């Protein structure tokens, strides 16, 4: 039986290099991975999903496909209901599944719209996004302030002190009905994919469909 192919989808205004360390961890655990930089700032969510779907079909063929996503990558995978893709499992890192409070507060700002583009503006409201196309786990970050996450020093201050967040996305914004598993890690939004515990959780979910072996629940 052919092992699934794991697709790595980066977040808004990032590139495939941001998922490189996670990719090495997955390959070390025995998974085949593919990744690419997609034009996250230039197109709408549906346009990006269409482009990425064609790439996945070309790369995967008849193989089962799993996905590991970061931030907006998790929103895009929710739009990948392409019947040509044979989905396995999806692990989402810090996804703004309910839309982004920060994006909603800045969506009318012309600089925000210029820099983050159509998809960035769409993150303000997640009420019409489809459910993920396969069983999925959500892994949320809880480190709200970090030197390596510039957003946490600026936009992240918009969160109240009583709102757990990763400096960019609130924990409650990651939660989505139908989750197969959920966990929190002490990591910032920008680099949650490099957190060793987050990587262990991803590996566990892709292997077993659960997080029990890592969380101890």
Molecular structure report:
There is one protein chain. By secondary structure, the protein is of the alpha/beta class. The chain has a single domain (5-207), classed as 3-Layer(aba) Sandwich (Rossmann fold), CATH 3.40.50.1820. Helices cover 35% and strands 16% of the residues. The protein contains nine helices and six strands, in the order βαβαβαβααβααβαα. Strands 2-1-3-4-5-6 form a six-stranded parallel beta sheet, sandwiched between helices. Strand 3, helix 3 (72-78) and strand 4 (86-93) form a beta-alpha-beta unit. The radius of gyration is 16 Å and the shape is globular.
β-strand percent reads 15-25%
**Runs with pLDDT <50, length 5+?**
none
Distance between the termini: 31 Å
Mean pLDDT: 89
Alpha-beta content class: alpha/beta
Order of helices and strands: EHEHEHEHHEHHEHH
* Counted beta strands: 6
Q: What general form does the structure show?
A: globular
Kindly state the percentage of residues in helix: 25-40%
Which strand order spans the largest sheet, edge to edge or round the barrel? Answer: 2-1-3-4-5-6
CATH architecture level-2 label: 3-Layer(aba) Sandwich
Q: Count of DSSP helices?
A: 9
């Amino acid at each position: 039986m052919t092992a699934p192919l794991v697709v790595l989808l980066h977040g808004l205004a990032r590139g495939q290099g941001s998922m490189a360390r996670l990719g090495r961890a997955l390959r070390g655990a025995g998974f085949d991975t593919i990744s690419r930089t997609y034009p996250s700032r230039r197109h709408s969510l549906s346009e990006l999903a269409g482009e990425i779907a064609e790439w996945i079909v070309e790369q995967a063929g008849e193989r089962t496909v799993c996905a590991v996503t970061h931030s907006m990558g998790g929103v895009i995978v929710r739009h990948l209901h392409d019947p040509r893709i044979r989905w396995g499992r999806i692990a989402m890192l810090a996804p703004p599944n309910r839309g982004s409070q920060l994006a909603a507060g800045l969506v009318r700002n012309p600089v925000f719209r210029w820099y983050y583009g159509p998809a960035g503006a769409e993150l303000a409201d997640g009420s019409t996004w489809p459910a993920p196309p396969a069983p999925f786990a959500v892994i949320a970050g809880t480190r709200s302030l970090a030197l390596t996450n510039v957003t946490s020093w600026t936009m992240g201050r918009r969160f109240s002190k009583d709102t757990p967040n990763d400096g960019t996305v609130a924990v409650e914004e990651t939660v989505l009905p139908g989750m197969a598993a959920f966990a929190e890690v002490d990591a910032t939004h920008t680099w949650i994919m490099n957190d060793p515990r987050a990587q262990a959780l991803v590996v566990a979910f892709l292997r077993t469909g659960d997080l029990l072996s890592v969380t101890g629940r």
